[in-house]
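Trying the structure run again after the queue cleared.
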Amino acid sequence: MDARYLTPRFLHACRMVGRCLRGGPPRPQPRRSALAQTRLLASLEVRRLLAASCMLAAVAGCATAPETGRRQVLLIDSAQEAQLGLQSFQKIKQQTPVSRDRQANAELQSVGRRIASVVSIPNAHWEFVLFESDEPNAFALPGGKIGVNTGILPITQTEDGLATVIAHEIAHVTARHGAERMSQDLIVQLGGTALSAALGSQSAVTRDLAMQAYGVGTEVGVMLPYSRTQEYEADRVGLLYMARAGFDPTEAVGFWERFQSQNRANGASTPEFLSTHPLDDARIAQIQRFLPQAMAEYEAARP
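Done. Tokens:
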């Protein structure tokens, strides 16, 4: 090329054409602001938590409740569940006086053992304790720990009535409702953590309002209905257990009708969608629906 053409202007033009052909020089990356970095980290955290949630969801369906075949999410093994139940039961026995009524205790042990003999569950060491408390209540803890308050005895009235209560609580244990509830709590906590991470760049007021709404939504929309599902399931399976042990399942209706009368006398009127337990009318209707199957078991168990 003739040197006279190699002027500064010509050389500059050549460099510009070359840049265009190559797509131009690499552009300097703008520095992210602190807010942008926070949002990026929050997004990555949400993705990580969502991936963990998917792994937890994959566990769903790996277990089924006995008798009903309902699918369950169980993230806690039975041995760990039983140990937690034992620890909780020991604390309750330390804090609540145990009844010294010999006749009532003997009846509780007799009914409890009869029903426990017709079920099978690993890591269960059955223990039936009568607590001195006016509150008409009974409860079950993982590992076979059953507590009954003296306040419920005037409502049970008969062995069959007491069997209704104990069989219901034993059904909670065999269906592993404690582990199921703890597993659900873990999943809900994970969702709350993901939401908190996603809101990391928002104002404190916005974060608080969102977390409060999340708490109310999960409690009413997820946690409470799930508990009612477990209660209905324990009613249904409990009928079968008491029938197989030789107790008349029709007495369950009488027990819940008496319980309903006491609730009405005490003015208990919590709306069902805010109650962890089904309302009495709905519960009695469900029990009557499942009675034919239980009666067939009862007739088969009779000598």
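The chain has a mean pLDDT of 75. Worth checking whether this holds up in the mutant runs.
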